[in-house]
Amino acid sequence: MYNIGMENQHIPVLMSEVLANLNPRPGEKYLDLTAGLGGHAKSILDVTLNYKESVLVDRDEFAIAHLKQKFKEGIEIINTDFYGAVLQLIECGKTFDIILADFGVSSPQLDNGERGFSFKNDGPLDMRMDRRQALTADEIVNHWSEKNLAEIFAKYGEEKPGHARLLAREIVHERPIKSTAELASIIASKSRHSSIHPATKIFQAIRIVVNDELTEIEKTLPLLPKLLNKDGRVGIITFHSLEDRLVKDFFREASSHGEESELRLVNKKPIEAAKPELVINPRSRSAKLRVAARN
What whole-number percentage of the chain has pLDDT above 90? Predict the structure, then answer.
C-alpha cells in the first residue's frame, strides 16, 4: 500500500513545465488519465479548484486507494486503463479543458519490489499495472518461445536483433527463472556494461507487453480531441522513443490539415527536464512533454 513516505519520495516529472504549457485557470475541468499519486493533479487542481467536474484515472488499485485518501473534495476517480476510461467518458458526453497523461511507471511501482517492475529491488516477475489481469512477466519469461522473446526484445526493447536472440536463448536455457534479480543477472552475464544497466531495455520490453502499453496509447490518442473543449490543452509525458514517436506522429497528423485540423501544436519540439530537476530527480532524464490545443 502506498504511504506518506512513498509520496515524499515521489517527485512528479516536469511539474513546472506542465503548469506553464497547460496553463490551468480557475474553473477549468481537468482529466488526468494516469493520476498515480496525484502529484500533477494536485498542482493543477490547486489552480482550477474545480473538483466536481474533474476526473482522475489509474489502472493501479494502490494508486486509486491513495487518490481517494488524498482528494476528499468529491472528485470522480476511475479505476481502469486510460483507453477504457476515455471510451467511458466519451460515452457519457464529458469534455475537459485540460487533459494530462504521464506514460511512465510511477516511483512507488518501481521501488516496491513486490510489483516486479525493477531489477534494483528484487521481487517476483509480475510487472502488472493492473493486478486484476492474468498475464504477468513470469508467464512471458518462463513460458514464451525463444523466438517470441527475441522478437519483443528487439521490437520493444530496441535491442539489436543478434543480441536479442542471444538473450532469449540464454533465458530459455536458464528456466525456470524466479525473480527480477535472477533475470537481471542472466541478462547482465551476456551483455556489455554501459551507462545504463544491461537489463533496462529487456525489462522495458517485457513491461510493455505485459501491460499492452503501446497498443493502448495508439487506440487512445485519436480519441482525445473528442474529450477536449475548444482551446482545451492536452499534455502527454513519455519516457522512451517508442511512446514519444506515437505521440509526435499523432500530434503532427492532427495539426496538419490547416483550418480543418483538430489540434494545433503548443510546442513543436518536446520539452525536457531542466538541469535542476535532473539533479533532484534522475528519473526525469528521459521524460519528454508534448502539448497540443483543440481548435
Answer: 83
pLDDT in tens, 7-26: 445 679 999 999 999 999 99
Q: What is the pLDDT averaged over residues 114-133?
A: 89
Q: What is the pLDDT of residues 208-244, one digit of tens each?
A: 999 999 999 999 999 999 999 999 999 999 999 999 9
DSSP 265-282: ES-SS-EE--HHHHHH-G
Predicted local distance difference test score (pLDDT) of residue 45: 98
Torsional sign, CA 126, 127, 133, 136: negative
CB atoms within 10 A of CB 192: 7
Task: Give the separation between CA 277 and CA 280, rounded to whole angstroms.
Answer: 5
Quick one: the chain helix, strand, coil %, rounded to 5? 50, 15, 35
Q: Copy the grid coordinates of residue 166.
A: 542471444
- Please report the domains of the chain, with CATH numbers, ordered by start residue: 4-108+214-294 (3.40.50.150), 131-210 (1.10.150.170)
Distances (CA, A) of 185 to 122, 181, 197, 199, 200: 11, 6, 10, 8, 12
- CA geometry: angle 35, 36, 37, nearest 5 deg: 110
